[in-house]
Amino acid sequence: MYILGIETSCDETGVAIYHSKLGLIADVLYSQVSMHSDYGGVVPELASRDHIRKLSPLIKQCLHDSQLTSANIDGIAYTAGPGLMGALLVGATTARSLAWTWRVPAVAVHHMEGHLLAPMLENNPPQFPFVALLISGGHTMLVKVDAIGRYTLLGESLDDAAGEAFDKTAKMLELGYPGGPKLAKLAEQGQERFHFPRPMTDRPGLDFSFSGLKTFTMNTLRGTEQTLQDKADIAYAFQKATAETLTIKCKRALRQTGLKSLVVAGGVSANKAIRAHLQEMTAQEGAQLHFPRLEFCTDNGAMIAYAGCQRLLAGQHEDLQIFARPRWPIDELLTVA
Q1: Annotated binding-site residue? 317
Q2: DSSP track, 153-213
Q3: E strand or H helix at 78, and its extent?
């Protein structure tokens, strides 16, 4: 079964083709970062318009790269949420139109389920059950995963997501957009000079809070001459505090569930410092750690094609309505039998 996957939840247009037995056949991605950098962040209206401009050419390129035609496609998977409503509608309307024209089923995919299952595209995928840490610009959550669609939310951010905190802190440091990768790069020049708090680690539970770290960053920055080294030291301290907070919560989640497998996915999972802290922790706990490859940490069509393929194989698909849900709790998903 060949599945065409479409991802348009935010500022990246991703298209991929996945085969149920052969694996990933083709994957193409277009990023809007250069356009949004002029505004210091994603402009929803511009994102939607750029998806309209790029999606059809990328679908044609993906079919060409895989040496397939529309006649070979057995189903279409598209990101239906969470995300920017306008951006989601571009992918949803395109997917539903193609599915009707090609006379194949279409299935709506949860964006975070796509991220959660991205490590399944690797040669050594995780085995169920496992704990998943999903960290991106819009989400930070810990989920117990018993099977595809069988998700128990263990904890989530009560305010800013980790990626959002990275971006806002980078803005304070005048690093530009996208802030997260630039802050991480600057932190490599930093030294152990400031100590930032590890929010909500001194109390039980698995929820997160990162807004306080932004305030602490601002106050610390005001107390310096704001030289490049000052900013590098602050970036180092902020990144270390975030990485250790995530690690403490993951360790707690593994012990609470009794599981020995941790999956970490989402755009922030590409951060080297966070990876290093989690690798050290899981080694000490005797647990396995799984990441998607770097190109599949950020938004992409491959993860949507894979997730959609599993649901289509289980007989799930949408009717002719166009389904888009900008806010969509992951624990409301149907289980894949």
Answers
A1: no
A2: EEEEBSSS-HHHHHHHHHHHTT--SSHHHHHHHHHTT--S------TT-SSSSS-B--HHH
A3: strand 75-81
| DSSP state at residue 66 | T
CATH superfamily of 127-291: ATPase, nucleotide binding domain (3.30.420.40)
Q: Which residues contact 153 (CB under 8 A, 6 or more apart)?
A: 141, 142, 143, 329, 330, 331
Does 72 appear as a known binding residue?
A: no
Residue 178 has pLDDT above 90, yes or no: no
In whole angstroms, how far apart are CA 328 and each of 89, 130, 319? Answer: 15, 22, 19
Do the annotations mark residue 138 as ligand-binding? yes
Query: For a pLDDT cut of 70, what percent of the chain falls above it?
Result: 100
pLDDT at 313 over 80: yes
Question: Residue 26's closest CA among 57, 67, 54, 56?
Answer: 67
What confidence score (pLDDT) does residue 337 get? 67
Is 299 annotated in a binding site? The answer is yes
66 appears as a binding residue in the annotation: no
Residue whose token pair is 């000079």:
193
What's the whole-number mean pLDDT along residues 280-303?
97
Cβ–Cβ under 8 Å, residues 275 and 169: no
Query: Is residue 84 annotated as involved in ligand binding?
Result: no
Other CB atoms closer than 10 Å to residue 192's CB: what's the count? 9
**Which is more confident, 103 or 321?**
103
Q: What was the pLDDT predicted at 142?
A: 98
Question: In the prediction, which pLDDT does 80 show?
Answer: 97
Q: Is 11 within any annotated ligand binding site?
A: no
Residue written as tokens 């080294």? 229
Do residues 77 and 111 make contact, with C-beta atoms less than 8 angstroms apart?
no
Which pair of tokens denotes residue 149?
Answer: 């669609």
Distance CA 281, CA 278 (A): 5
Q: Tally helices (H) and strands (E) across the chain.
A: 10, 10
Residue 233 annotated as lining a ligand binding site: no
- Residue intervals of the chain classified under CATH 3.30.420.40 are 2-116+296-332, 127-291
Q: Please identify, in words, the CATH class of the domain defined by 2-116+296-332.
A: alpha beta
Is 167 annotated as a binding-site member? yes
